[in-house]
Structures are given as structure tokens and as C-alpha cells.
User: Fold this.
Amino acid sequence: MYETLLVPTDGSDQAAVAASHAIDIAATRSATVHVLSVVDDRAFLVLDEDRVETVREDLRANARDAIDDIATSAAARDLAVETATDTGHPAECIVDYASDHDVDMIVMGTSGDEYETNVVGSVSQRVVREAPTPVLTVGPDVEG
Assistant:
């Protein structure tokens, strides 16, 4: 049933905790773990044009580092791992990736900010609503 798991990461501690859960699930099923990090291009709207490329490269480097950390953990458990980066709105990119790669489940963290109005983070909330597959969200109080 769950042969392909997608783990989106922004490099946060919460994404790492979610990745830990995804790796445990994948290990019980010998599933392939896809790790995706999205450079949110909306951040460029407020930058001076001459700074955009420098910031973009910094964000891409951070995305690669976040991916590498999770990929290393999954590989240490003898799991097949595929990695990717994308640029755009994170929720859209995550949903598109899941569709394009026939992902069986998405496992992602949620910050839980402003819980009175937003039970899960805005990216997580949108992914839950739009994903073509089940989404397991790991809240901020869950430990890895």
C-alpha cells in the first residue's frame, strides 16, 4: 500500500521529526523515500533585483542541505531514496510532485502557528486539501 513516501522538507526541526516518522514507516514496508525541498519564490517579491540571485543560491544550498540530511538518514536504514528540489509555491510544488511521481503517502511537519485560526500550517493545510494521496502531518509537539 505505501511503497512510495514523499517527505517535503524546509530544513526545520519539525520537518526532521516528520522525516523520522516517514523513515520508520518506509523501513517497515521497504518503501522508497522521496525527499523534496522547495525554494519559495514568493520571498523574492520584496528583494532588490540585484540581490535575488544571491538569495536564491543561498536558499537552494539550504534546500540541498535539508535534503541531504534526510536522504542520509533514510539510506542508513537501507532505503531507496530519491531527492529533488523545486522553486515555486511550496504547497503547489509538493502536490504536483506527489501527482507526477505516483506517491502513495506524504509525510510532513506542521508548525501549528496561530492554532486558533490555523490548526496546521498554511502549506500543510493546503497540501492536505489538495493532495491526490493521504497526508500524514506531524505536529509541533510530537517527538522523533
About this structure: The first strand starts at residue 4 and ends at 8. Helices lie at 13-29, 49-76, 90-100, 122-130.
